[in-house]
Amino acid sequence: MKGYEDREFNAGKDFTENTAEPHYIYQGRIINVRNDDILLPNGKPAKREYVEHRGGVAVLAVDENGYVPVVRQYRYPYRAHLWEIPAGKLEVGEEPDDAIARELTEETGLRAEKIERISEFYPTCGYSNEIIRVYLATGLTYVGAKPDEDEFLEIKYIHIDELYEKCLSGEIKDGKTIVGVLKYFALKNKK
Amino acid sequence: MKGYEDREFNAGKDFTENTAEPHYIYQGRIINVRNDDILLPNGKPAKREYVEHRGGVAVLAVDENGYVPVVRQYRYPYRAHLWEIPAGKLEVGEEPDDAIARELTEETGLRAEKIERISEFYPTCGYSNEIIRVYLATGLTYVGAKPDEDEFLEIKYIHIDELYEKCLSGEIKDGKTIVGVLKYFALKNKK
Question: For an interface test with B, which of A6, A39, A125, A131 has the most B Cβ atoms less than 10 Å from its Cβ?
């Protein structure tokens, strides 16, 4: 960039880190943990700790009145209840586009005429390989909720404008919810 | 919500999961991994796997011409180079508001007159306790970059409008970058 030459560096350089030796520390139910021996671009050895995760899906389901189902559940890592859009993990071998219809119906009892992917993002790229896909679901019909017995959750409906305000104010803390809602409005305002 | 009573349930219920026995699986450099025995709200035992992380900071630094430094680095978990806003992990005992000025100068050589927090979010609340704080830095002066020797990274400058487009198109995949950029525009458009 003209005028910024002194501040820019390493344009286009290859920083690939190659695996010297993979080391599995832990193979769990929802995550595996690795601490690989790798080689830095300069050939020096280093370690890379990270989590393997199958990936997640989340859905912003907006009905004809602008209302959206949101889910409150206890998130043990934070020792707190959080409000989120409906979401779930991919099952083994499951495609994200199939998983999302399943999750939406399981958690909220809704079926959607149209489900489109509006974001695919890397929540915390330093130590996890998780990919979260966020969908927009419209044309909603209520077919009856069948929440899993082991899912302790609250469902309520709030207007998309109110949800947007809560994302901006910081009341909503969940990353996938913030990404989904802000992107929904950004795409809408572009049209 | 009136008209949604049949679809809403468990309003205000307490779903707290209590720790029966913490189990540390791994204590690493940037993450610890736990697989705790917990008690579900109904008293039944269960397991909770998750990662402990000290938290991260990220900064959208916008200069008087609307240009923003972005960083490209190799992210081993994805086996890919990613573009991100400057960011880093908290050091032991370090306050986020102190860490961010340090990270900005270390990575880009910039000092800022004003650094304000614009977001605090939970990137992947199902299996990590990480909190990412995103800051907006303005009033920038270039004081010379001192990139760490072991940080293999490219720095370039792009206009904030172009960065926004890349967040919307999906070219930018990094969650903290998407949250920071979309929130910056959402807050700006509100004023």
Answer: A125
